[in-house]
From TrEMBL:
InterPro entries (UniProt xref): Glyco_trans_19
Transmembrane segments: none
Catalytic activity: a lipid X + a UDP-2-N,3-O-bis[(3R)-3-hydroxyacyl]-alpha-D-glucosamine = a lipid A disaccharide + UDP + H(+)
Protein name in the entry: Lipid-A-disaccharide synthase
HAMAP family for this protein: LpxB (MF_00392)
Annotated Pfam families: LpxB
Gene assigned in the entry: lpxB
Role description: Condensation of UDP-2,3-diacylglucosamine and 2,3-diacylglucosamine-1-phosphate to form lipid A disaccharide, a precursor of lipid A, a phosphorylated glycolipid that anchors the lipopolysaccharide to the outer membrane of the cell.
NCBIfam families: lpxB
Length: 465
């Protein structure tokens, strides 16, 4: 851990992000807080976006970025050392408060230790206790002075369990435009829009889909949907929209030949962690190759979060599908989604980003076999869907291919069928637009106001103690 400059008297806030999605959320929050209190200093664990926003970092974010029971077990001693170092370092700095951004397995423990030492704590992005290990709500109560919830059903759940919570909306919903600019995205990526015959959604179909009041109804069971994965029989959280008619399954008839349907651009997002890319890169590349053999006009783009992951994915591509028309880029995931006609993505924040981009998607995920066995054996998952996009809508608009179903012979036909089904894409577009509007609450502003109010209350308490 680097030496700390304690000579500056500026008021300080600790903030800890463990992975790229947290780095993005943390940067938006830091910017909003600085707009209101320019004198604030931020230090903790930061990625490139938080560093650009003016944060200082005590540890490299990559040291904390790991997911999965087995994967975490391999590096657990280092994670525990990192947390001890952070507790000591942040306690020495004596911040006004400490904010943990997502990553609850690491950050809640950090927050609990700091709170026990008299430092107020805030957690941004509620753990999915409504879906996974609900007993953690007791740990949350011990760990935080304030939970900032980004989904409305989370706030309701936490209030019922006596956790201090403020619903702020989702920061990404504020950051994404309601209407994605495909032309600008193609320019940013160096892709000629003229070379793509867009699989555009007919506006009249979107109007029809809106008129149907797209929402939740009779969500199919795991058996009905064909999803194999860590699902359970417990009811999912309330989706944002009220019930509507039960959706039709995606048609699986033979796809149109390329000459009839034109070409299209498919975005491939195998995840932001090396472990995800190792597990999902191959089946996603196999799916792309499967589709390209049947539609030679298809083109592909794969945005990667780092140069190291880009090189690893390129190596897989050279080994498995050297002739595939695939452009691999550093970053630019939003541009890739906005430019694409369809997204093949890992489960996680990327599914929400695809929703906010109004792009139809297929969702794939694999866990380490032992992690998957433990999750299913212990029935740790309490919701029907893996993708947040499906949880928000309340049905499987984005087909999910989990674990053993994450295969090219299953994902390929579903991808082409979705590409060919204009009515289905219009339904998806309408549903995603409605969710986007509901989540667009100026989240960074709400979060900053709630945090500053907590700081002021803590200051009043100290003055009167």
């Amino acid at each position: 851990m680097p030496s700390l400059d304690l000579s500056r008297s500026r008021p300080l806030i600790g903030i800890v992000a463990n992975e790229p999605s947290g780095d993005q959320l943390g940067a938006l929050l830091v910017q909003a807080l600085r707009e209101r209190r320019p004198e604030l200093r931020f230090i903790g664990v930061a990625g490139p976006k938080m560093l650009a926003a003016g944060c200082e970092t005590l540890l490299p974010m990559e040291r904390l970025s790991v997911m999965g029971l087995v994967e975490v077990a391999k590096v657990l001693p280092d994670l525990l050392r990192a947390r001890r170092d952070l507790v000591r370092g942040l306690q020495q700095l004596n911040p006004l408060l400490v904010i943990g951004v997502d990553a609850p397995d690491f950050n809640l423990g950090l927050e609990r230790r700091l709170r026990a030492r008299g430092i107020p704590t805030v957690h941004l992005v509620s753990p999915t206790v409504w879906a996974w290990r609900p007993g953690r709500v007791k740990q949350i109560r011990r760990s935080v002075d304030l939970m900032l919830s980004i989904f409305p059903f989370e706030a309701d759940f936490l209030r019922e369990h006596r956790v201090p919570v403020t619903y702020i909306g989702h920061p990404l919903a504020d950051d994404f435009p309601l209407q994605p600019d495909r032309e600008a995205a193609c320019r940013a990526l160096g892709i000629s829009l003229d070379s793509l015959v867009a699989v555009a959604t007919d506006p009249s179909l979107v109007v029809q889909a809106v008129d149907k009041h797209v929402g939740v109804s009779n969500a199919p069971s795991a058996e009905d949907s064909g999803v194999e994965g860590p699902t359970a029989t417990a009811a999912a959280p309330k989706a944002i929209k009220p019930p509507a008619s039960k959706p039709q399954a995606i048609k699986t008839q033979a796809s149109k030949p390329c000459e009839e349907s034109g070409t299209a651009l498919i975005a491939i997002l195998p995840g932001s962690r090396r472990s995800e890319v190792e597990l999902l890169g191959r089946p996603m590349l196999e799916t792309a190759a499967w589709c390209h053999r049947r539609r030679p006009g298809l083109r592909f783009i794969a945005p990667m979060v780092s140069e190291a992951l880009r090189q690893r994915f390129e190596a897989m591509r050279c080994e498995m599908a050297p002739q595939l028309p695939l452009k691999v880029v550093n970053g630019q995931s939003r541009e890739a989604m906005a430019a694409a006609d369809l997204v093949l993505t890992a489960s996680g924040t990327a599914t929400l980003e695809a929703l906010l981009s109004k792009r139809p998607m297929l969702v794939a995920y694999r866990l380490h076999p032992l992690t998957y066995w433990l999750v299913t054996r212990l029935r740790l998952i309490k919701v029907r869907y893996a993708a947040m996009a499906n949880l928000l809508v309340g049905r499987e608009l984005a087909p999910e291919f989990l674990q053993g179903r994450c295969r090219a012979d299953l994902m390929g036909p579903a991808l082409l069928a979705l590409l060919d089904d204009a009515e289905r894409r219009a339904e998806i577009d309408a549903a995603y637009r409605e969710i986007h509007r509901e989540l667009r609450q100026n989240a960074a502003h709400r979060a900053a106001e709630a945090i500053l109010a907590l700081i002021d209350r803590a200051g009043d308490h100290r003055r009167h103690a």
